[in-house]
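Box 3.1 A note on notation
Throughout this textbook, protein chains are presented in two layers. The first layer is the amino acid sequence; the second is a token string describing backbone geometry. Keep the layers aligned when reading.
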Amino acid sequence: MKSYRIGVIKGDGIGPEIVDEAIKVLDAVSVTQGFNLKYEEMLLGGAAIDETGVPLPEETIQGVKKCDAVLFGAIGGPKWDNLERHLRPETGLLGLRKEMGT
């Protein structure tokens, strides 16, 4: 049975709630279509800032490069609006896009 590695970036605000529901859908599809999914949670955006002090930790960059796909929730919110530009959640998103070539 084919197996896929999925990077999960739940994000901020409603992101975690939406991503949790998307995982339920992916799990149902994987069962009916006969493949396995292995999820690996990673940090980006405000959640990453709160936990690591930066919007895009190196661990996330390295992690997504090892995955077959990334499931990504919403990032940002008023809590982080007044940070310096290089520390804002959106800067992490731009950095991730650059690293992934998207």
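The mean pLDDT is 96. Residues 15-33 form the longest helix (19 residues).
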